[in-house]
């Protein structure tokens, strides 16, 4: 892939602050067959952490990435480092029991500590800071839930306390839970530093290198063969798996704005509300906020939320591009000192049915491992993934292996599964729905749409200069009709979250191939 193309840089039209403020690393493209002990697919936080841990243990490691470093979802995070999980600890205790919930807390705490230790060990300058976190009630939530969560966090071994007010936030009355010693960092600086560290330890990294076929001990990438005793798929959603894992987790889109705020206006912290309990989405979308150093006069206040299932924004009649307006309104009310909105972007998170990531051997495989199901805690889940997978490959016991194993079946959440599955199945009805516009000649410049052409569904995009790109709108994963995302200028699959650039290039799995190109002449002959 040409590294000058935007899909090599990030998975959408909007650049995050991280990618815009710090150049991504690129390495050689794979140009010949190679052999290795461990092959890691994906150079985000999960893949690079795994590579680092395995390199420390003496393993021969190769990393391949189809874009540049952090060009996937790691580069579109807000980079909270926290053990205050986006699903409540009292929920985890009901699902897994007290001891396993305690292990979850310990694993996220250990992930933050490991990141801090690695930053010091490798001398990575990435704005790492320890700071406080505050969880407060969403207006739709019951007051009792904070007390319930406080007790659950204590049972999980966390040192939390209930405060009578929320530090740093205006126009938000009520109590909050204080989580001390959380952290934040600049994800791009951190991952570039980690990539350089693993390169020094002998790890070979290949960027702009796409894994076309993943089988036991053999991967085909850019037409070349990579033989590996062990393969780690760290691609946010597994691109090696067709069905199994995609019945246990579901893709959601989350939105971020970054606004300037005068330095020293508020004390840096992490803030989260408990989520909209009246939402039609089972995940109860919540808001999350942090500060980031910007320039001599201003910091950036990053505020995220307004989530919806990928490709299904229309179910709430709120288009993707309108989500930012709602987010700005929510943020200005609570942080009225913010000034200009200088960045906006969105990212994709995978919500596992039972709240915890899936880390371990891919079901049905002996030497293929996966790290997926970040559930809004991608920075810590990705780090946990690297630590755990390294132990599994090295046949070392790890106390977290059981709670994160991908073969687990969340039987206690059958109702939630049915609701999510029905939402997914309903998207196949798009085959009989009308297109976005009547015909391709109605398409404006820099606009995309889904169009019905006879029995076919077409995905069409016309660029700024009027050049037309037309593809089959059928997702190559399992045949859903993709939807046009006018905000990120992508075609998004509403079933399992595959995403494609406006030129039809795959930028998010589980699909692993591009949208099929349709010749414009053929379209004209069959309007």
What does it look like?
The protein has 527 residues and is α+β, with helices and mostly antiparallel strands. The protein is 24% helix and 27% strand. The chain has 11 helices and 24 strands.
Entry keywords:
alpha+beta; 24 strands; 8-stranded mixed beta sheet; Rieske Iron-sulfur Protein; 527 residues; 27% strand; 9-stranded mixed beta sheet; 11 helices; globular
**CA-based gyration radius:** 22 Å
Looking at CATH, the homologous superfamily of the domain at 432-525 is Rieske [2Fe-2S] iron-sulphur domain
* Helix content range: 10-25%
Question: How many β-strands, per DSSP?
Answer: 24
Number of helices: 11
Q: State the CATH class of the domain at 432-525.
A: Mainly Beta
Provide the structure class.
alpha+beta
The first-to-last residue Cα distance is 32 Å
What general form does the structure show?
A: globular
- The CATH architecture category of the domain at 432-525 equals 3-layer Sandwich
Stated plainly, the CATH topology of the domain at 432-525 is called: Rieske Iron-sulfur Protein
Calculate the mean pLDDT score and round it. Answer: 91
Unreliable stretches covering 5 or more consecutive residues:
none
Kindly estimate the percentage of residues that lie in beta strands according to DSSP. Answer: 25-35%
Oligomer: single chain
Can you lay out the helices and strands and say which pair or pack?
Elements: H1 17-21, E1 34-41, H2 45-56, E2 61-64, E3 80-81, H3 89-96, H4 98-122, E4 129-136, H5 144-155, E5 161-163, E6 176-184, H6 187-200, E7 204-206, E8 211-215, E9 218-221, E10 224-233, E11 249-262, E12 270-273, E13 288-293, E14 298-309, H7 323-334, E15 341-352, E16 358-361, E17 368-372, H8 378-393, H9 401-404, H10 414-426, E18 447-453, E19 456-462, E20 468-472, E21 483-485, E22 490-492, E23 499-501, E24 506-508, H11 520-525
Parallel strand pairs: 1-2, 1-10, 2-7, 4-12, 10-17
Antiparallel strand pairs: 3-6, 4-6, 5-6, 8-9, 9-10, 11-14, 11-15, 12-13, 13-14, 16-17, 18-19, 19-20, 21-22, 22-23, 23-24
Helix pairs in contact: 2-6, 2-8, 3-4, 4-8
């Amino acid at each position: 892939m040409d590294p000058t193309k935007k899909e090599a840089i990030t998975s959408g039209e909007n650049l995050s602050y991280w990618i815009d403020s710090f150049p991504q690393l690129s390495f050689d493209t794979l140009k010949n067959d190679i052999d290795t002990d461990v092959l890691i697919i994906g150079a985000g936080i999960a893949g690079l952490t795994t590579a680092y841990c395995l390199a420390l243990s003496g393993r021969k490691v190769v990393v391949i990435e189809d874009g540049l470093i952090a060009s996937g979802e790691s580069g579109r995070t807000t980079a909270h480092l926290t053990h205050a999980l986006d699903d409540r600890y009292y929920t985890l205790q009901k699902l897994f029991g007290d001891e396993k919930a305690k292990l979850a807390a310990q694993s996220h705490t250990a992930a933050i500590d490991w990141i801090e230790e690695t930053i010091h060990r490798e001398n990575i300058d990435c704005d790492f800071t320890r700071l406080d976190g505050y969880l407060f009630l969403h207006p739709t939530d019951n007051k009792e839930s904070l007390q319930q969560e406080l007790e659950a966090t204590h049972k999980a071994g966390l040192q939390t306390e209930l405060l009578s007010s929320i530090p740093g936030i205006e126009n938000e009355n009520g109590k909050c839970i204080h989580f001390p010693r959380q952290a934040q960092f600049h994800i791009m600086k951190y991952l570039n530093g980690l990539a350089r560290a693993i390169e020094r330890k002998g790890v070979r990294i290949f960027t702009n290198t796409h894994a076309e076929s993943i089988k036991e001990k053999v991967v085909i990438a850019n037409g070349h063969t990579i033989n590996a005793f062990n393969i780690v798929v760290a691609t946010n959603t597994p691109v090696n798996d067709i069905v199994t894992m995609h019945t246990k987790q579901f893709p959601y889109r989350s939105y971020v704005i970054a606004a300037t705020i005068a330095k020293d206006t508020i004390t840096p912290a992490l803030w989260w509300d408990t989520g909209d309990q009246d939402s039609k989405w089972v995940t109860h979308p919540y808001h999350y906020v942090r500060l980031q150093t910007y320039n001599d006069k201003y910091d950036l206040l990053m505020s995220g939320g307004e989530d919806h299932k990928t490709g299904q924004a229309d179910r709430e009649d709120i288009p993707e591009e309108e989500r930012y307006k709602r987010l700005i309104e929510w943020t200005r009310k609570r942080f009225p000192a913010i000034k200009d909105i200088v960045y906006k972007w969105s990212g994709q998170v995978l919500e596992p049915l039972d709240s915890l990531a899936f880390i371990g051997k891919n079901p049905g495989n002996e030497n293929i491992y996966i790290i997926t199901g970040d559930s809004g805690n991608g920075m810590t889940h990705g780090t946990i993934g690297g630590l755990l997978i390294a132990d599994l490959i090295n046949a070392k016991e790890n106390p977290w292996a059981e709670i994160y194993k991908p073969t687990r079946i969340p039987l206690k959440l059958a109702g939630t599964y049915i609701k999510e599955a029905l939402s997914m199945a309903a998207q196949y009805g798009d085959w009989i729905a009308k297109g976005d516009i009547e015909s391709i000649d109605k398409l404006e410049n820099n606009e995309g749409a889904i169009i019905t052409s006879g029995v076919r569904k077409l995905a069409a995009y016309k660029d700024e200069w009027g050049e037309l790109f037309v593809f089959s709108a059928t997702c190559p994963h399992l045949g859903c009709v993709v939807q046009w995302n006018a905000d990120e200028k992508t075609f998004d699959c509403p079933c399992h979250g595959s995403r494609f650039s406006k030129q039809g290039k795959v930028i998010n799995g589980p699909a692993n191939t591009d949208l099929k190109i349709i010749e414009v002449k053929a379209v004209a002959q069959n309007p």
